[in-house]
Design brief:
This protein is α/β, with parallel strands linked by helices. Helix content is about 45%, strand content about 15%. It has helices at about 15-25, 45-55, 70-75, 75-95, 135-155, 180-195, 215-230, 245-255, 280-285, 295-305; strands at about 5-10, 30-35, 60, 100-105, 160-165, 165-170, 200-205, 210, 210-215, 235, 245, 260-265, 275. A six-stranded parallel β-sheet has the order 2-1-3-4-5-10, with helices on both faces. A three-stranded mixed β-sheet has the order 11-8-13. Bound molecules: guanosine-5'-diphosphate-beta-L-fucopyranose.
Length: about 300
């Protein structure tokens, strides 16, 4: 990938896309193409085709997706399946038709079976049933992987797919109904602290284990893969460590400075019991995560305080 390549970052306002955009700008890439949702509806095939035919990006980064936490995924399987299929089909097809030399498709660790071996190697894909709370999203992402691999096999396209673990950082969604756990707990503890409340509600049993990667680490990994990885085989991007939701909640309370109680709402689903990625493949190529969880949470909390009043 060259500094003068035109690079289209689909989804540049989201958690992932905005981090990739920051990273590419900082590294001196200067032909960065972005479009807001109002400017380009990625679910509209004709609009996407016209955009690609006009701009002909050399590199395409598929960071646009309908995403959400366990509740949003569980409540809206139709939207998660349909919108993600539409967005990724339009982007991947148009990238090929317009002659893009490389495409990076971003999946998710939820593509792996609910009871996959831990840490989860890339070879676990399609080895068993999925976690029901996010099956629709996972099926869409698996279809995206298979479409990229099919373009590679049938047409020799350099379309790669990376599987990030649970992410957090600036520009995350902090809506309590639709967000992921880390953003939700940052907001709940902050609001409890500022209002003088003595407890926050945390969903589930607290026992599931999750791995959290700062989105700036993910952006660095994406750039690394764009420059160093040309295989259609999927590749994991993770932090290499996990912790229980209870431990995460306690860590967030410490960072925010909230010393009240945790009330567990066991009517809410736990989701998959554990989701730790095996990152030996990307580490063997020369990339490793750099941002410790406590530091990343503190930085994200500072961002939240500056942007949500
Ligand atoms: O982050 P999260 O929504 O998604 O939830 P998943 C992780 C765990 O945190 C679950 C618990 O066990 C939740 O029950 N949790 C505790 C909370 N309190 C809260 C809270 O206030 N809000 C939320 N959201 N959770 C998602 C998938 O799964 O992970 C997506 O649904 C995607 O498809 C994403 O793969 C990365 O880790 O369970």
């Amino acid at each position: 990938m060259k500094k003068e390549d035109s690079i289209f970052i689909a989804g540049h306002r989201g958690l992932v896309g905005s981090a990739i955009l920051r990273r590419l700008r900082a590294d001196g890439f200067n032909r960065l193409l972005t479009r807001t949702r109002a400017e380009l509806d990625l679910t509209n095939r004709q609009a996407v085709d016209d955009f690609f035919a006009r701009e002909k990006p050399a590199i395409v980064i598929v960071a646009a997706a309908k995403v959400g936490g366990i509740k949003a995924n569980n409540d809206q399987p139709v939207e998660f399946l349909l919108e993600n299929l539409q967005i990724q089909n339009n982007l991947i097809r148009a990238a090929h038709e317009s002659g893009a030399s490389k495409l990076l498709f971003l999946g998710s660790s939820c593509i792996y079976p609910k009871h996959a071996p831990q840490p989860i190697p890339e070879s676990a894909l399609l080895g068993g049933p999925l976690e029901p709370t996010n099956e629709a999203y996972a099926i869409a992402k698996i279809a995206g992987i298979k479409l990229c691999q099919s373009y590679a096999r049938e047409y020799g396209a350099n379309f790669i797919s990376a599987m990030p673990t649970n992410l957090y950082g600036p520009n995350d969604n902090f809506d309590l109904e639709t967000s992921h756990v880390l953003a939700a707990l940052l907001r709940k503890t902050h609001e409890a602290k500022t209002s003088g409340s003595r407890a926050i509600v945390v969903w589930g049993s607290g026992e599931p284990r999750r791995e959290f990667l700062h989105v700036d680490d993910l952006a660095a990994a994406c750039l690394f893969l764009l420059q160093n990885y040309d295989s259609p085989e999927i590749i994991n991007i993770g932090a290499g460590k996990d912790l229980t939701i209870r431990e995460l909640a306690e860590l967030i309370c410490e960072v925010v400075g909230f010393d009240g109680d945790l009330d567990w709402d066991r009517s809410k689903p736990d989701g998959t019991p554990r989701k730790l990625l095996d990152i030996s493949k990307i580490e063997s190529l020369g990339w490793k995560p750099a941002i410790p969880l406590r530091q990343g949470i503190a930085q994200t909390y500072a961002w939240f305080q500056a942007h949500h009043r």
